[in-house]
Amino acid sequence: KARLAILLSGRGSNMVALVQAVQGGVLQELAEVAVVFSNKPDAPGLETAAALGCATASLGSQGRKRQEFDADVVEVLNRYRPDYIVLAGYMRILSPTFIRAFAGRILNIHPADTHQHQGLHAYEWAFDNQLPETKITVHLVDEGLDTGPVLAQQPVDLRGAATLQEVERRGLAVEHQLYAATLAGLIQGKLTVPDAALAAPDSPTTPEAGL
Ligand code: GAR
Questions:
Q1: What residues form the catalytic site here (predicted)?
Q2: Active site residue ranges
Q3: What separation in Å is there between the alpha carbon of 74 and the centre of ligand 1?
Q4: Exposed e or buried b per residue across 54-83, where buried means at least 16 C-beta atoms within 10 angstroms of its C-beta
């Protein structure tokens, strides 16, 4: 079974969906949760993960230099021998130190098409611009901000969504399905990982990588 390290900074609804998929859904025969990690020791998602029976770990990132903090995180995560690093609302830009430690094995989910929107507040962006749809994107993380190879996308119909809460509700329902399904496909070798994503160490890309 593939060992997952799930990283979060907040609520952790994607983490819950992944744990449920491991415990009785599409990931059941394929994966196990090695650890749920947070850069915020008081993230609500950590408590939820523990209640679901997951091992948890945290290291506070506040006031820490990015490279040094990430080196410490890599050390903690390596104790759990993860095959995949699964970012689930992990609101931190990842340094090359981190990316290179797990090159080609870091996944992220983003509430928009990463070709159109990067970084924070994607649902606000879709709502404010009254977009008729958003495209949930699961991608591999490389050294750019939301530039990594796309593994899967699924559109969400946003027509008639009158509030930001409704936009988020529709989007998250798709996120929760798509993330587990994409991981299952990856683990089963049904999705091919572009070679470029694995060649991270010497590739001349931007110095910081993202959420
Ligand atoms: C999710 O909507 C996720 O797609 C988004 O943060 C939320 C975390 O919610 N991630 C990003 O915007 C990354 N750029 P959760 O803690 O309930 O899973």
A1: 110 (proton donor)
A2: 110
A3: 21
A4: bebbbbebeeeebeebbeebbeebeebebe
Distance CA 204, CA 70 (A): 20
The pTM of this model reads 0.92
Report the alpha-carbon distance of residue 127 to residue 111 in Å, rounded: 12
Residues 6+ apart with CB under 8 A from 161: 127, 167, 170
Predicted confidence (pLDDT) per residue in 132-182, tens digit: 999 999 999 998 888 899 999 999 999 999 999 999 999 999 999 999 999
Helix (H, G, I), strand (E, B) or coil at 188: coil
- DSSP-derived secondary structure letter, 94: B
Tokens 């059941």 sit at which residue? 28
Ligand 1 lined by 10 (C-beta under 6 Å)? yes
Q: With a 6 A CB cut-off, is 48 part of the ligand 1 pocket?
A: no
